[in-house]
């Protein structure tokens, strides 16, 4: 396999700081929300509004990247993430000091996350399409594996770095990660606009959401989003209420779980997808299976050892499945639709965060184990769908890299 272009590592660096910022938000908000007087449903609504904005704007940014080029879209996304983190941390600071309370605090937190959803949603479609531009069919899984590994590494480093910085200031981690995002932005500005990055005239019809080349991957993406939201939005509460109910700082224990999940994701992305060259369809199938087993284990976990193993397994499955989805949908469409296809994928992942306050959080209040059992059922039925769908069967074949893609797709549609 030929060497992957170095620009992928720079894009991965941008996603590193995006992941670091996101992980700190997800870990600190649930327990802190109770001290700030916010209910579980109100806490979930902070993430739901951001996810809704992300879902609505991600396809737009993807389509725009096909028209204007990848670089400008990625830069807009990175700046949006930085502004969102700064505003979010400022609101938390005002809330903890009593300056901003009640519905006013909730409104500012939602607004800050909405900026992340509207502008930050440009990062992934632009970066994913850029990777597709600079990789061939044989490199696609490895390229997306390296790109997504940056986000996973950020999820590991975010809580670890924040743990040290929180001693100095509660808001310092948010500002540090914002500076990192702006640094990557400056580095991208120095990159030349290559021919691969520029938009060519599209000789084929427009790519639609229900296109046979697209929707099978989006179905699995929605399932992943639902399970991811259930874990992200409830796990800090789960540690507090079930695993370590009597310790003074449950966030520290939850942080270890998130770090192990992110470490598992990196193994799935850099080792399984990149080095072992596993086909996208196999990544999707095995990733779905691992996520299902992990969620079942979490639902029955009562000890730190079991839940930490379950979080690692969840991350491993998530890393392999998400990389397979990104590479699979990229290979299924032509070069003229890379941005829009990545935008579609970015659109469906946040669906879980939209419905989590309505489903996962009420289920958690009924029983802390129910959200994870629901996730297991979602992954189980997803696995049945993967095994029966033609597009997933085609993309799983070991010889998929050597066939004419358009011919293979036409065969699937007939």
Taking all Cα atoms into account, the compactness measure Rg is 20 Å
- Could you please say which CATH topology applies here? Growth Hormone, Chain: A
Termini separation comes to 33 Å
Instruction: Count structural domains.
Output: 1
Mean pLDDT value: 81
Helix content: over 70%
Global structural class: mainly alpha
Order of helices and strands: HHHHHHHHHHHHHHHHH
The number of distinct β-strands equals 0
Query: What is the CATH homologous superfamily assignment?
Result: MFS general substrate transporter like domains
- Sheet having the most strands: none
Second-tier CATH architecture: Up-down Bundle
Low-confidence stretches: 195-204, 398-414
The CATH class label is: Mainly Alpha
Please, how many helices?
Answer: 17
Globular, elongated, flat, extended or rod-shaped: what is the shape? globular
Fraction in beta strands: under 5%
Descriptive notes:
This protein has helices spanning 7-35, 40-68, 70-96, 102-118, 123-134, 140-165, 172-189, 215-243, 250-275, 280-299, 304-332, 338-348, 351-355, 360-366, 370-388, 390-396, 405-413. With 414 residues, the protein is mainly alpha-helical. It has one domain (8-191, 209-397): Growth Hormone, Chain: A, CATH 1.20.1250.20. Helix 5 (123-134) runs antiparallel to helix 6 (140-165). The longest helix has 29 residues, at 7-35. Mean pLDDT is 81; it is low at 195-204 and 398-414.
